[in-house]
Each structure stands twice: as structure tokens, then as C-alpha cells.
Amino acid sequence: MNKDKFQEYEKLYADALLNDSIPFCLKYAPDRACGGYFQCLDFDGSVVSTDKFMWSQNRVVWIFSMLYNNLERRPEWLEMAELGINFLKKYGRDENGDWYFALDRKGRPIVKAYNIFADFFAVMAFAEYARASGDRGCAEIALKTYERIQLRKDNPKGQFNKVIIENRNLKNLSFPMINLNVASIISGINNDTVYDEIITECVKEIMTKFLDEKHRVIRENIAVDDTTMDDIYEGRHVNPGHGIEAMWFVMQAAKQKDDWTTIYKACQAVKWLLEFGWDKEYGGIFYFLDLRGKPHIELCWDMKLEWVHVEALIATLMGFSLTGDPELFEWFEKIHNYTWQHFPDREYGEWYKYLNRRGEVNNRCKSNKWQNFFHLPRALYLISHLCKSLQNKGF
Amino acid sequence: MNKDKFQEYEKLYADALLNDSIPFCLKYAPDRACGGYFQCLDFDGSVVSTDKFMWSQNRVVWIFSMLYNNLERRPEWLEMAELGINFLKKYGRDENGDWYFALDRKGRPIVKAYNIFADFFAVMAFAEYARASGDRGCAEIALKTYERIQLRKDNPKGQFNKVIIENRNLKNLSFPMINLNVASIISGINNDTVYDEIITECVKEIMTKFLDEKHRVIRENIAVDDTTMDDIYEGRHVNPGHGIEAMWFVMQAAKQKDDWTTIYKACQAVKWLLEFGWDKEYGGIFYFLDLRGKPHIELCWDMKLEWVHVEALIATLMGFSLTGDPELFEWFEKIHNYTWQHFPDREYGEWYKYLNRRGEVNNRCKSNKWQNFFHLPRALYLISHLCKSLQNKGF
Questions:
Q1: pTM above 0.95, yes or no
Q2: Contact B110 A365 (CB under 8 A)
Q3: Which is it for strands B40-41 and B47-49: parallel, antiparallel or unpaired?
Q4: Which positions 158-177 of A are in contact with B (Cβ < 8 Å)?
Q5: Which of A96, B199, B316, B379 is positioned for an S-S bond with B310, CB 3.0–4.6 A?
Q6: Are B332 and B313 in contact (CB under 8 A)?
Q7: How far is it, in rounded angstroms, from Cα A111 to Cα A309?
Q8: What domains lie within chain B, and their CATH numbers?
Q9: pLDDT digits (tens, 9 = 90+) for A326-342
Q10: Which residues contact B360 (CB under 8 A, 6 or more apart)?
Q11: What pLDDT, in 10s, does the model give residues A58-75?
Q12: Is the CB of B365 inside 8 Å of chain A's CB atoms?
């Protein structure tokens, strides 16, 4: 019976990927006149802003290259990735080789290279595209960008860093999390043991420092100095979706090393975050929470975001597939039901990204400055893939 | 009959100021151990964060000094202002005399001086306190800070400015708006015609550039270069509450010069913004809107904020008191009804600051990093004052 269920799920997620999410992006995102992608799209695919953000442009390249490498060698996917690669190669970097935060439609830089996550996503995009196309120049851009990140990592924001670290030195989960993810992708084009060391170090930092077993959460910020974390907003900030996403990165890395202690710990953390983050009144997972239940500084704290839910689907199903823990599968189905009831737009295609606490569409965009073609297609691909392998596991 | 009505309103607003808002702040905000104020307070007055933001600390000093100067010379108000002044004088500025963005509880700087609005509020605070106390040293700090602002005004963010202005040069309404407000306050301690010129220039810029008569809104951003504003988020961004607040600053300045053309234009703009910004479904004024009705980039766009509503109360009543326009008084009463139904917390005192679109409390804090003791007491004072004068106008 479970085999049938996984078969059904596989079909559902693969269908959403191949017949909904990808076609919407292929239809509305390409900017054939200027290169790159329109990344801020309204419910019907019409363009909301023509600006191009290096974060998200690179994420689109990565998705199409990854699908080409892992799912099917469809020429239109490689061609779509190339549309971004050519634009990014030409306009994306400043004179140091660091990635601008934003360009205008024609590729003129409008926001400087202050955000190192643009560089991380560029490494992912150029490494994955290099594997797909065999373009050695792109592999070199990935490696060069990765080197620059390592040089900048102690002060990623450089001159733009406003924090006086002598008096307030916090570390955010994002850095080890993406470092872990990117190291495992770049190791696919460059066989060097250094990536393995980075992965080990990131997993250790996340699982011993950010994971707070006493309070049963993953913290977004930890103190490098002796700041009292409980008295300030940042110290109590919990982002359940982000922590849950980190946990499946950790599961993947730990699986490579056959480290089952870490896998079980990551599964436990996913359950803790879901227990804490699930909205018992209206369903769905809160965007942000305060560890002590105090008012959060962000007004959108109670919203239900698509990326949060699809990351939780990946983490629960991956955890279940590794450990067979039935509680994780129960969570998967609970989140699955909420997600499919609320996010897909059955009229215009693609999924809504932003719902209010009650699960009503708060912002009808299908993509914007921060969210475009990334979390959803990655999740649809990984979940259909997991469901396929689960059919033969006999759970 | 109207006389009775204005008498009732006067009593209601004065009572909320003197017997609700001020006592809540006096009870929970003073940090007697370290100086300055706890400015992030939960619904019951308990402290949510001990950090101190120069923006808001200075605004509290200004309010208590202003009430002492204009309403009643109560020693506890001056003493409260002094608690902030001493802390700010000692810790608030960096080596250039620019105001830090944030300090920790003990006064150690944690965020550098990147935000010139902290400096503007410091000018207001130190100038108003100097008038209240006769402290010449404070007047000098106000003047010195104002000089630094004029030096920094072409690039207020300095090294922290991430925008490449050769390719994207926008100007925000905030600058001329606060410059106008602060020039009129500082002219109270320094009799110089330069302030009058600044006021004239700011009113002109707001009423000819930011006020878009064709689209019947006040724009938050205008292009200094030839950027196509309609294709980007920032270009279409409308913040009705902010534009409405700017309009009563303009009315005050225009009244000084007996410039009735500008007064009528400002009243018209208030009505346009209310027409555009009023939520026809749930009532209340939206926080942010897109000029073309496209999805806004900020997720909190549909929320109902206390400061927006009290600024709209000031602007409509001030406009009515100047022109007698009955439509403005209708708007005042409509907003009054919404505001008093939704924002006051009749159990714990003070008003909620953040409601969701339906008017339910989304964040139960009474003050935070961005909003504390400023918009509400200023509005309660100004509205009770306007109602007093309206009793003798015979409208």
C-alpha cells in the first residue's frame, strides 16, 4: 500500500515540476532582448520589476543546470541556463571579481557587492553549468569566486558592515549553512580534500553551536563574544524553515560519511522545529518566532511562506527515508496537505509564495526580488526522487 | 453642537495623553540603572530588548521636552527628558560627532553612524531640551549636529551607501520631510534666516516633485537621473501615512507664510492619499501600496499601523481647522472611529502599534526598535490642542 502511495506522490511532485513550475518559468522569465531573466513576476507572469538581482539570477541558472545534469538532458533547459550565464558572465561582477547585488535590466550595476550570498549562488550556478556544458571557463569563474569568498569570509560585508564587532559580535546560521551546501556542489568540479574539511567543519558548527538542544530549536544567531543573547531580538530569533533546511543539508553530508549519530540528531531537530513552529490555530509553519514567545521584531513573523513549507517537505521525507521514523512521515503528510491546499495557483499556474497567517494570499506575486525559481523546483525534484527510491524500501 | 463635539474630542485626546500614554512610558521606560530608556516594551510593559536606538531615544527626549515647553511645566517630564539627555550626551556620538545607530544597554556602541535620521532626531531632542532647561551646552550639541547633517546631506550614508548612483539615483521623501520639520524646531533656539530658506526649499521640493498630481499620490521616491520609475519597485512605492504626515508639516510651514495656495494643495493631497490608501474591505489605512496595483515588495504592505492612523488624524483635523473643508472632517471622524475601535489596549494601557489587515493585533508590543513614545503622544497633544482652538471657530 505504501508503495502505491509513494508512486502517487512521485507522480504528483514530478508533474508539478515538469508541467507547472518549469513551463511557467520558461514562458515568462527569459529576457530575450537584454539577457538574463525577469525575476519579479506577477500572478499571471507579467513583469513587476525589470531589475536583476545576482542572488536569484544565479539560482535560476543553478536549477536548470542541475535538472539537466541530474534529471534529463533537455536542450531547452541547458539553453535557459545559458541565457543567464552569458548575462552574468558579462555584467555580474565588479573589478575585484565580486558579485554585484543588483543590476538594472540592461546589466548596469545599481547595487554594489555587499552581499556574499550572491557570490555563493554564483559558485553553485557556474559549477553546475560547467558540469552541464563542459565549459571550462565557467568552472574557473566558480573556483575564482569561491576563492574570493574565502578571502572575504571573516568580514563578508566589508566596508558595508555597520556592526561594531568589539561590542556585538554575532554569527548567523546562513554562513555555515550555505558554505556546507556550496562546498558539496563545487567538489563536483574540483577534486580537492579541502571541501571535505569545510563540510565537516560546517556540520560541526551547526550541530554543536546553532542547534540548542536545551531549548529544542536551531538558533539563527549565536554570540562570538559574551553578549547576553536572551536580552536582544537577534539572540532569540528562530526561523523554523531556515533551520529545517539546514538539517537536510546536514543529513546529506552526514550520509556521505555514514555518520548516523548526526543523521538522527538532525531528524530530532527537524521534529523540534516543527513542534515549535507549527501554527496550532490556523495550520502551517510560522515564518519567524521568538524563542521566549516575546513579540518578534519582524512584522511578517506570522506569515506562511511557500519556501518554508517545501523545505520542510524535503527534510521530513529525507529524514524518513534515512531512518524510517514514522513521526517524520506523519509530519510530511501533514505539511503536504497544508501545502497543496494553499500554495498552488490552479488557474494561472505556479505557486503563490506568500500567505498571511490564515493561509490567504497576501501577495499575489509568483516571484520577486528575494524568491524566484529555486526552492520550489528544487523541492519538487528532490521529493519526487525520494519517493521513487522509497517505493523499493518496503517502509 | 459642534462646539460640544470638539470639547468632547479635546477631553478624550488629552485624557489619553495624560492618563494613559505618558503614565505607561513613565512607568516602564526609564532605565534608572544604566540611563536612557527601555524602548522595546511588551504589552504589559516588560522589556523585550535592552538595546538602545539613537533614533528613538532622542524622540522620547523631544516629546517630554516639547510637552514641558508647550503644555505644562511638570518637573517629572523635564526629569524624564534629562534621563535621556545625560545618557545620549555621554554615549550617543562617535568621534566625528555623528550619532550612532544603536548602543547596548550600558551605552557601548553596537551599530555605527550610518543613519542620518538619528542625527535629525538628536537635533530635535537637544534643541527642545535646551529650550526647556536653559542648558546652553545642549543647544550647542543641537547646532553642531545640524552642521554635520548639512555636510553629510549629499551622501548621508557615507561609506555604507551601497547604491551606484551613476546608474540609479533616487531621492526619498524622508529627507526633505524631516529637514523641514527640524529646521522649524531649531529656529526656536537660533534666530537665523537660513532655516527659513531651508523650509521654503523643502516645501517646494515636496509639493512640486514628490506630489504627483497626475496620479493623485505622493511618491516616496523620485528619480534624480532619467531612470524609468514605473518599471521598478521603488518607483511605484506609495506610503500613504508618510505622505499624509508630510502634508501637515507643509500646512504648518505654509501657514507661517500665509501661503494659502500651498495649504489647499496639501489638503487636496491628504484626501487623495486617503482615497487611495483606505482599505474598502476591512477599513483602516494600508501601510504600503503600489501605484499601479502590482504586488508590493514588502510583505507587511497590508497591515494597519498606529502611527499611520494618528498622523492621518492630525493632518485631516489640521486641514479642516485651516480650511473648514467638511470632507476633511468626515475623514477625521472615519479614521477616529477606526482608530479608537482598534488600537487602544484598555486592559494594560497604551496602544497597540501593529494590526493585521483585518484589524487584529499582529504584534502585541507597545514599543520596539522602530516605534516608541513619539507618534502617539505627539498626535494626542496636537489633536487636543486643535480641538480646543476649534471650539471657538464656529465651524
A1: yes
A2: no
A3: antiparallel
A4: 159-160, 162-164, 167-168
A5: B379
A6: yes
A7: 30
A8: 1-29+169-395 (1.50.10.10), 51-162 (no CATH)
A9: 999 999 999 999 999 99
A10: none
A11: 999 999 999 999 999 999
A12: yes
